[in-house]
Amino acid sequence: MRHRWPTNILGILLPLFLGQAAFAQGMGIARPETANRLISTPVLLGLFVFVIGLLLLVAVLFSRRGNSQIKEKGLFFGSKTALALGVFGTLAGSILILTNLFKPTSVMDGMQGMEGMSMEEMMQVDGAANPVPVRVERVRSAIFKASIRYTGSVRPYQEATVYPRIEGRLTDYSVYPGDQVRVGQTLARLSAEERSGDVEMANADVEATKAGLQASQVELDEHHEEVAQMAAQYAYWEDELPRAQTLLAKGVISQEEFDKENSEAMAARATLRAVQVKLQRLKAEVARSRAMVLQSQAKARNARIMQSYTVLDAPIAGVVEERLVDPGVFVQPGTGVLKVADYSKVRLQANVAQEDLIGVQLGSVVEVRTGRINKSIGGRVTSIFPKAGDETRTVTVEALVNNPGNGLRAGQFLEMSLVTGQKANALSISKSALAQFEGKPVVWVVAGKFAQRKPITVGLTDSERVEITSGLNAGDAVITSGQDRLTISTRVTAVDNSGQPIATLDSGAMGGNVQVQLISPTKPSMGDNRLILQVKDSKTGQPLKVENIEVNIAMPMQNMSPMAADVEVKPDKQPGSFIVNTYLGMEGTWEVTAKVKDPTHQGVNSFPLDNRQSQGKQ
């Protein structure tokens, strides 16, 4: 018994060590993986080496104290060697124990039973045991208008600046911005007294020239009588002279008498010529007087026109926009006094990028929203400017719209949506639901309680929504928020904008009229499985022949995203019956979600699928 003390020491330390591990694990002091390390092979080996080294050290200590029994028996090696081996054993055992107890936790710890999982599935971990909250919207079918949205500005239908044509000081300047004015309404006057004097002088000149014309006309009329008298006298002598020449030839009259008559005839001719020349001169004077009258009248009219320029009238009907100068200011021609604009209609203008002009043409529908009116204004494109901006490289697009009540004002900003295309009965979703996978557009949809990724094809777009041409059906539940935290078959829960859970996305929520039942097998196994699903009418219980069914199988996992199983669905021979080929890579409770997407029959059902070999197995 005296020689069994090393065995006694080992028998005491080992039970204490193992008992401490069991006590720590049972009381929850240590984590399960830590307790498992206390009884692992490396730790037990280290404990054994540590105890052997400790025994050698104790033996050397006893031998040095002169223990007779030890000395009699002796050690099978020298005390120095035993001491070295003892120190080495205790150090090596301590290092082996400590390195295995406090080494970092393996990423595979606690994942026993996942032998059937692929590496991709094992990496789909989001660190959350609870469902991911997401916001969801239903795919809807309605009229879809593709549009581009720009910030536009308002310009009046007409705008005019009132300029003075003459210089003068502003008087009677009483209109203010916002005043309604009509065409020709007096807006201001110019104080210009010299213009009144010019008018008076022009009027006097007109009267003088008219008097001169009248005198010339009287003289011309009188001279006409004298010319007629001289013409008659000359005509007499032209008739008398041939007769006198005949009498002279017959000797009735003498040569002297004939010469006298001939002299009188020549004098009458000369006098007639003189009065005719004077007649032409008087006619010229009358014409000159008449021209002077016209000239003076023109000067008078010009003076009156210049005098009218002292009154500043409204060139168009509209609203006074701005007073450019103050009353009493001396203005010159070209100095703007005030602005008047017509707001019965307004021009809505937006600078559109060249690449967005595709689909925009004259007559394109324009939808305008402004906070001032707080409603939508409809119109059509009436003008597309032919020149792009030199710096912005944008093209101005304009729509002329009515402006009842002058609700829109110049310079006001508003949102202009230019409709570039339109489709009836188009499926559309919010742009926030769009994502990218491998460079292609995808969306996340809710299938039962899990999220699934679906590739889609997009069509027309507007500022908030996008048309879906393939990949989705009306009624599909599309995730619009929270999809950045999703992986394949992540468990999700639908929430509202405040984060509160909403009704689950089951068959009732979709208005489903079918149910899906598992026909076989009654007990699936781990590995390959062949499931038979039957679609029945929820009211009559009779099998229904449907065209499309979507099946997802996943296993909820603690601290991991659900493990998705590969699924192949094909119709069976029986109406409403489908064969589902799948591979269940782990033992446990799998959740099957079947979604019927038939034109006339729709619904979602979920049910568990337990492939554990023993129901008591945990």
Mean pLDDT: 75
Radius of gyration (CA) equals 58 Å
Distance between the termini: 48 Å
Instruction: Estimate percent helicity.
Output: 25-40%
SSE class: alpha+beta
Task: Classify the beta-strand content into a percent band.
Answer: 25-35%
Main beta-sheet strand count, sense and barrel state: 6 strands, antiparallel, barrel
The total beta strand count reads 28
**Number of helical segments with 4 or more residues:** 9
Low-confidence stretches: 20-33, 68-77, 105-129, 504-511
Shape: elongated
> Which strand order spans the largest sheet, edge to edge or round the barrel?
2-9-12-11-10-13
Overview of the structural elements:
- Helices cover 33% and strands 34% of the residues.
- The chain is built from nine helices and 28 strands.
- The model is unreliable at 20-33, 68-77, 105-129 and 504-511 (pLDDT under 50).
Secondary structure elements and pairings:
Elements: H1 5-26, H2 32-38, H3 41-64, H4 68-73, H5 79-101, H6 119-122, E1 132-138, E2 140-162, E3 168-171, E4 180-181, E5 186-191, H7 193-250, H8 255-308, E6 311-313, E7 318-323, E8 330-331, E9 338-353, E10 365-370, E11 375-384, E12 394-402, E13 413-430, E14 435-437, E15 440-447, E16 450-455, E17 457-461, E18 465-470, E19 477-481, E20 492-494, H9 507-510, E21 514-520, E22 527-537, E23 549-557, E24 560-564, E25 567-571, E26 577-584, E27 589-597, E28 602-610
Parallel strand pairs: 1-20
Antiparallel strand pairs: 1-19, 2-9, 2-13, 3-5, 3-8, 4-7, 5-6, 7-9, 9-12, 10-11, 10-13, 11-12, 13-18, 14-15, 15-16, 17-18, 21-22, 22-26, 23-24, 23-27, 25-26, 27-28
Helix pairs in contact: 1-2, 3-5, 7-8
